[in-house]
Amino acid sequence: MDLGISGRRALVCASSKGLGRGCAEALAAEGVNLVMNARTPGPLEEAAGAIRAAHGVDVVTVAADITAEEGRADVLAAAGDVDILVTNAGGPPPGMWSDWTREDFIRALDANMLTPIALMTALLPAMMERGWGRVVNITSVAVKAPIPVLGLSNSARAGLTGYVAGTARQVAPFGVTINNLLPGIHATDRADALDRAVAEAEGISLDEARRRRADTIPARRYGLPEEFGAACAFLCSRHAGFIVGQNILLDGGATCTTF
Q1: What is the pLDDT of residue 57?
Q2: Phi, psi (degrees; rounded to nearest 5) at 176
Q3: How far apart are CA 144 and CA 175, in angstroms?
Q4: Per-residue pLDDT of the chain (259 residues; tens, 9 = 90+)
Q5: Integer Cα distance of 34 and 47 in angstroms
Q6: Residue/partner pairs of 63-69 with CB below 8 Å, 24 or more apart
Q7: Interatomic CA distance for residues 28 and 10, integer angstroms
Q8: Dihedral sign from CA coordinates of 242, 247, 250, 254
Q9: What SS3 state is found at 137?
Q10: Contacts of 91-96 spanning 24+ positions with Cβ under 8 A
Q11: DSSP string over 152-214
């Protein structure tokens, strides 16, 4: 299927690895030129070089902390008027409700709620003026089914979800869509960190922790960044203009809900 986005320009945040990298790869495969962002220059340049070589698209890199005001300003200056925005940032650490202070919640909100909102605020007006745009926020399955040890993430991402629900309906008349992708467990560094924490807490091997988690997923495996990226690319396509303000689970069936 031709997604109809060849020649478009996309900003993909936290895209040197994991789900962000999967999204960048899938968009590049459709001929989309990229602005790639990550904190660490080495892995970012390595990822960008591989994508240029594989797909022949233009790739601009900006090594910066997208959750910091200065870093965000650098990324936006390099991005210019992009057609596609994919927001992404690492989730807060796990813990217990009694562990978290106000400062912990502020950091979580900055990274996983206020940063995507700031990026949308900066980039939506030009998309609306041109009459076309796509925003995909990488959030979490925790929006549908909160995870007890991820209370910081549950809170911040739920706030972003509420913001998108209203904003998506306001920009849709201008040919701009905003949707959220809700990943369950995928084979990424984030999954490794969570599995290591379980292994250490329960005194089991990392492989055993992964096996136990995979057994809770109806698909009996972790998701792959490339299949997550394919879903993102479709939401960014010309075929997805009637998908507005949705929260789409990619979790192998792990979340049992009717809607």
Answers
A1: 98
A2: -115, 130
A3: 27
A4: 899 999 999 999 999 999 999 999 999 999 999 999 999 999 999 999 999 999 999 999 999 999 999 999 999 999 999 999 999 998 888 899 999 999 999 999 999 999 999 999 999 999 999 999 999 999 999 999 998 989 999 999 999 999 999 999 999 999 999 999 999 999 998 888 889 989 999 999 999 999 999 999 999 999 999 999 999 999 999 999 999 999 999 999 999 988 7
A5: 12
A6: 63/37, 63/38, 63/39, 64/37, 64/39, 65/39, 66/13, 66/14, 66/37, 66/115, 66/119, 67/110, 67/111, 67/115
A7: 9
A8: negative
A9: strand
A10: 91/140, 91/150, 91/152, 91/153, 91/190, 92/150, 92/152, 92/153, 92/156, 93/152, 94/149, 94/150, 94/194, 94/197, 95/149, 95/151, 95/152, 96/149, 96/151
A11: HHHHHHHHHHHHHHHHHHHHGGGTEEEEEEEE-SBSSHHHHHHHHHHHHHHT--HHHHHHHHH
Phi and psi angles of residue 221, each rounded to the nearest 5 degrees, phi first: -165, 170
Task: Tell me which H or E stretch contains 248.
Answer: strand 247-250
CA distance 141 to 182: 5
The pTM for the full model equals 0.94
Q: Say if residues 213 and 185 touch (Cβ distance below 8 Å).
A: yes
Alpha carbons within 13 A on the beta-carbon side of 230 = 7
Of 92, 81, 71, give the one whose Cα is nearest residue 13. Answer: 71
Give dist(CA 62, CA 13) in Å, integer: 10
Could you give phi then psi for residue 71, rounded to 5 degrees?
-65, -40
Q: How much is the pLDDT for 91?
A: 84
pLDDT reported for residue 64: 97
* Lookup result for tokens 């990550």: 38
